[in-house]
Structures are given as structure tokens and as C-alpha cells.
Amino acid sequence: MPVGSIPAITGKLRKRLILDLTVALGGGTALGYGYWYGVHVPSVARRDAFYAKLQSERSE
């Protein structure tokens, strides 16, 4: 088997690493924003509304 018959794989690992990092960071950021605005912010709003109502009932 001649030495030149093996195809070169130069750069494949770097390209795959860049793709993996891009997908991981983009996906993580998207899921983070989804959690923050889909779960956390509404939860805090409900909590704040509860305590505001409780305070107004106590002041009456």
C-alpha cells in the first residue's frame, strides 16, 4: 500500500470543534434565555404580586 493512498484529515478536527462549540454556545444561550423569560420572570412576577396583595391586605 503506497503512503500517498491515505487521505489527509488535516483541519477536520478543528472544523468540527468550531462547529461543536458554536452549536453548544448558541444552544445554551437560547435555552438560558428561554428559561429566564419563560420560567423565572413569570415566577418572580407572581411572587411579587402575592406579596403586594398581602401588604395591601395588611395595611387595610
Strand content: under 5%
* Average pLDDT, all residues: 89
The end-to-end distance, rounded to whole angstroms, is 92 Å
Give the number of DSSP strands: 0
Label the overall shape: rod-shaped
- Main sheet overview: none
Low-confidence stretches: none
User: Count of DSSP helices?
Assistant: 1
Order of helices and strands: H
Computed CA radius of gyration, to the nearest angstrom? 27 Å
Structural class: mainly alpha
How much helix is in the residues? over 70%
How would you characterize this protein structure?
It is built from 1 helix and no strands. With 60 residues, it is mainly α. The chain crosses the membrane at residues 17-36. Its main location: mitochondrion.
Quickly describe the structure.
The chain is mainly alpha-helical. It contains one helix and no strands. The radius of gyration is 27 Å and the shape is rod-shaped.
Throw out a few tags for this protein.
60 residues; mainly alpha; 1 helix
How is the topology of this model organized?
Layout: H1 12-59
Subcellular location: Mitochondrion inner membrane
Main location: mitochondrion
Protein name: Cytochrome c oxidase subunit 9, mitochondrial
